[in-house]
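Forum: Protein Structure Q&A
Topic: Joint prediction for protein chains with partners

I've read a bunch of threads here and the consensus seems to be that you should model interacting components together rather than docking separate models afterwards. I'd like to see that in practice. Below is the full input, 693 residues plus whatever partners are listed. Could one of the regulars post the assembled result?
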Amino acid sequence: MTLFFPSLRERPGAARLATIATLLVLIALPYIIGPFGAAWVRALAFACLYILLALGLNIVVGFAGLLDLGYIAFYAVGAYTFALLASPHLSSNFEWIARAFPAGLHMPIWPVIPIGAGLAALFGIVLGTPVLKLRGDYLAIVTLGFGEIIRIFLNNLNAPLNFTNGPQGVTLIDPVTVGAFSFGKMHHVLGIAVPSVYLYYYLLVALAIVAIIIVARLQDSRIGRAWMAIREDDVAAKAMGINVRNIKLLAFALGATFGGVAGAMFSAFQGFVSPESFSLMESIIVLSMVVLGGIGHIPGVVFGAVLLSLFPEFLRHTVTPAQEYLFGHVIVDAEVLRMLLYGVAMVAIMLYRPKGLWPAPEHGLAKPVAAGAPGAGALKTTGS
Amino acid sequence: MDTFIQQVLNGLVLGSVYALIALGYTMVYGILNLINFAHGDVLMIGALTALSTVEVLQRLFPGAPGPLLMVAGMATAIPVCIVVSLLIERIAYRPLRNAPRLAPLITAIGVSIILQTVAMIVWGRNYRTFPGLLPSDPVPVFGATITITKIVVIALSAAIMVGLMILVNRSRLGRAMRATAENPRVAGLMGVNPNFVIAVTFAIGAALAAVAGVMIAATYSVAHFYMGFIPGLKAFTAAVLGGIGNIPGAMVGGLLLGLIESLGAGYIGQLTDGVFGSNYQDVFAFIVLCGVLILRPSGLLGERVADRA
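Posted by a regular:
Agreed with the consensus. Here's the joint model:
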């Protein structure tokens, strides 16, 4: 909690109380909003998934200052890894797999998630190695291209050997199962019914909390400080003995790992993946979460992810009826309007509030030099 | 052999379009060190504006000759694109000129999204047919065939590029542009107005993108809100291939990339026994981009070493 509200740091008792209260609210939340429709609980679960994605992208964009425009590709790698290793798709298309696993390839999550995360990280390293020693702009365009390429491959790798089933996607993916406990079924705990969606919500909340803790610890670690040093000035960072390329690569690979894990969860939660879910727009959406919330500031990023993932749900319930009421028919789709607003928000935030809606407190920075004071001009040139 | 010549011709058509778009990227990059992500979408706006103009004119003057309509379409697309591009520069890039590098990249992406969604609202989500305005009879060339439209594309791009070279190398404005690219502050001290030069650069880039957009729409007979993305990405690759910031480099890079793509797509099926088909055409540009960045990051004609992050 002190991460979100630094003022609580002086009052450990209040901090503990706030943590417990927050956890209780998070546990009770599905039962509070559940009666308004399961779609809202689903939206909340997705919000947690987006928290994972946004935190991962924040490592790359926020901490290390590298613009990654194809982040969703790593999400796709994770999702397809899970989909292929935990569904009947491969065994029904390849005879030797069917012979080895007569009941279909249903690997449990414990190996699949590390494999998915590892593969995503590997892709990140392979992609990052040639580009990261160059200037940051190239990374943006290479990742942008990579995001598209992944989609082309997913769409076309159904012939001559059917790996991805093309545009139809992979279906019948196993739900998350821990031991004998399946997240895909309704359970009863102390006489209270807990539907599958609620279970996934709890799982994803737990994952999001773990991710927040990991990222917060990373940020304060030696590596985290190295990332920020590179972001501020990579030449100076190099002069301080930081291996700039490797540290950048580490940021890129770790970001990809988060994407991979989130992708695997997405795959299990949906039970279905297709290339359509991994378009450039998704990358842009995750980027807007990071930018809007506050680049490099964990609470800001979490806030941005929750805000923007619940926003379409809100738009759907307001914009469409409002237009029908005003004009008699829908002029602008909620979906289109959402993208328009995201675009406007990205430009406006960068122009007027470059640190986001929930900016990081200015600790540890040098006091701003008064305009006109000696050195003020010199400071500006180093940033460009 | 016939296939080879055919693919070379197709490659030249593709390449001259890429070259026109790449010039827009490379000129802006040369002066501002900024990747103008919205450049591809300016192209799309140009194509769709031309489409609307042609449709309106066809309704008003049903018998109007095709080539005239084509010229009218371009004549409206160019000013519209210039205005859009100048607005983008003024609103999204100029205030951030001294900001950290990440900031203008993010606003560029934001602008790109805005242009796409606005186009989606104005022109709809669906693919629109671009009418065939030039005669579509195939002309035989060395055993292969080419349409009049494609000949016009190649000839017009060549003419534009020659004109641009003269403008940049011979005129007073061109000298101001080169001076600003070298060092904006010193150019300012020498009596050049950098803001004006930068605006002119964006305007020229936008005009070239408008022409390229109309050409793409005319060649493939379609236009839609997302048509700018892939050509934009490839033209950027072309600019990097030639050496970003280098004007002749963008032209060479564009033509080369067009040839690589079209020959690659033409022969990949044979080379891999049909495992990969021509639907992987878009992958070539990406492989070229990665290859150039690994082997020769400064590009074929570039001299500046790009190592500052």
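Residues 15-228 of chain B form one domain.
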